[in-house]
Write a structure and sequence with these properties.
Low-confidence stretches: none
Structural class: mainly alpha
Organism: Thermaerobacter marianensis (strain ATCC 700841 / DSM 12885 / JCM 10246 / 7p75a)
Radius of gyration: 30 Å
Keywords: Membrane, Transmembrane, Transmembrane helix
InterPro entries: SHOCT
Largest sheet: none
Distance between the termini: 85 Å
Pfam families: SHOCT
Number of helices: 3
Shape: rod-shaped
Strand content: under 5%
Protein name: SHOCT domain-containing protein
Number of strands: 0
Length: about 90
């Protein structure tokens, strides 16, 4: 009878190569996926200005605009026009 060693068929060697590739590829895909999710979430927030100071100024301006509209100092059309101007800057 012949003894059969596991390396003679060649398939075991291919299996080890595939396991080694998967060992490095799976964590790489996970890390890239996490970065993609983080960057994708930032892209969805495109309406927010990049500069936090601008964002705070826009939020403050909108709050003042809402107060003026609530007090009746400006009309609905003026409110919408000014709001669009603030959000586009």
């Amino acid at each position: 009878m012949m003894m059969h060693d596991g390396w003679s068929s060649g398939w075991t060697m291919w299996g080890m190569w595939l396991a080694m590739i998967a060992f490095w590829l799976v964590p790489l895909v996970v890390v890239v996926g996490i970065f993609w999710l983080i960057l994708g979430r930032d892209r969805k927030r495109g309406e927010r200005p990049a500069d936090p100071v601008d964002f705070d100024e826009n939020r403050r301006a909108l709050a003042i605009l809402k107060e003026r509209y609530a007090r009746g100092e400006i009309s609905r059309d003026e409110y919408e026009r000014i709001k669009d101007d603030i959000l586009s800057s």
